[in-house]
Amino acid sequence: MSGSDRRLPEGRTAWKKTAVVTVPALAAVAAMGMVMAQGALAASFAVSGTNFQVSSGKLTSKGLASYVQTDHAVDDTGHPVALLGIGDATLSDICQSAAVDTPLGKVTFRLTAGGDAGEVTASSLVIDGEDLVGDARFGTAQIGRDASTLDQVPDAKGEPGKFGLQAGDITVAGVRSHAWSATGGNFRLKGLRLAVGLDGKQCF
Description:
It is built from 1 helix and 12 strands, in the order αββββββββββββ. The chain is mostly beta strands. Strands 1, 2, 3, 4, 5, 6, 7, 8, 9, 10, 11 and 12 form a 12-stranded antiparallel β-sheet that branches. The longest helix has 23 residues, at about 15-35.
């Protein structure tokens, strides 16, 4: 009987197969933890070939700035996105998930925080999203402002002559977004939970 055909004793784990799934995920979490500890994530990087879901029951912020840009993958594939700059954000809960192809099949990476553990906070949160769905209330809004002059959120500025918009205090309930990247400084993720599994449930 070959090694691949042997049945594992009951209660034993196939560590080689488990490592294929867990090692990349743990490496990603460790890297994120290091940059979070330094207070900020990189503002510009090559995105992966997989977008991900982000959801929250409620998001509030002292400001919003947005303009259109293009994210690029390592192979220079472009993804048009709406950059959403959110200053001093508070979220009732947060869920982030991505479906990733592996040698074992489709694996779901899912991260959650907040809820009963308390609110999630982040400063200078920037989401490069394909869409954003929710019920929103905006403060003073400026639509059509030159992207290079946006000043509601630090460092959330586009190129001169490009279309931009911004608003004062915002509240969005039932947040759902498909995004290619998210960066921010000083995340506080109460009740953090991370799960990686085959055929796992995504955020929505």
